[in-house]
Amino acid sequence: MSQYPRLEYSMEDVRAAGKSLAGPVSFTPQNNAVAVEIFSIANSWRDSHIYPMRSIRASVRIAMRQAYIRGDMAARPKRMSSIRRKLADTTIRLDQMQDLGGCRAILNDIDGVNRLVERVRERSQHCIRKEWNYIQNPKGDGYRSHHLSMEFTPARKEDESFAGRRIELQLRTRLQHSWATAIEAVSLYRNQDLKHHKADGDWLRLFELASAEFAQVERSPLPTGVPDQAERVKELKDLNARLGAVSMLENIKAATHFAENFTHDRGRYYLLRYRPDHTVKIETYTGTFSATSALELAERAIEAGESQDKVVLVEVDKIDKLVSTYPNYFGDVSLFIRNLQLACGGKSGIEYTVAPQEVVRPREVQQPDYGALRRRYTRWIEPRR
């Protein structure tokens, strides 16, 4: 287990660091060493959730295959900015957070979500501490997903130091995922926080009404406080016209682009950097320690005011799944746009579709090196532009 980080501090240190992170932490010359220590403790605690997160993700992936449930899976440690927001806005302590590590299954339809929930309940070796069924009971803002707080239960003696780590498992349909990630994409693009209701009220209402339309497509309960469909469609159409919502969402697709130095290297972890100019830079890492160290340095620069990037460290099965699992960072809001347009036209949405997606621009056609055929191993390198 040496390839996975373990907690290097006491739980008293973790709780103290959490209290500090709930307030301002300055990286002034006089306070720099203290600030670095606070973040080092918090990062060590968060990093100790990586192995439990991977284990739970692997077990859910196996369950999907055994039950022939189609979908994608991803995992990520919670962003430090989100950790600090929760510490500041709630009474929860850092050592009590149940989502420092998160796994997400994005399934084709409601049936897949329901079957996977039952399979996890019946067969998971890990303890389910609590469930939040935001599909049967949507949040007031329209958010829909099924959350389970999983407590890691070690199967081997050498894993016992990770016992009790809490990982949040989110199970959602692709339609629900398109809604949730469209909110985050708009937030990134407009530099607002729709997810936490700190944004234009018209945009929040548009997403609330869109969620109701999506819920109706999936034959699921609607969020409370929405009118009947005729009134809903009329209001949604008016909001779309007033905000120019579809046009702006199309602009998000056009404005977001990939950094020129992105390569086809495959790794286990991917550090996504969303920059103020809407450029996405992707860094690949094969080792857990190198990945978490890169995340820590990037977040420290953000906290110190040296960077305006938005960063997240993710783990996916294949590199080409980055867009489908984290479309908000790539401006890919196609499925949401299509369903919003259908809803505004009073038509039923589509429960699932596969839109053609590319992680990077197509490679240029190159003349083959026929001499390379004599060698056993070859590798094509994409030329820099």
TrEMBL record:
Residue ranges constituting the RelA/SpoT domain according to the UniProt record: 75-194
Organism of origin: Mesorhizobium hawassense
Any GO BP annotation: guanosine tetraphosphate metabolic process
Membrane-spanning parts: none
Gene3D superfamilies on file: Beta Polymerase, domain 2 (3.30.460.10)
Pfam hit, one: RelA_SpoT
Descriptive protein name: RelA/SpoT domain-containing protein
InterPro entries: GTP_Pyrophosphokinase, NT_sf, RelA_SpoT
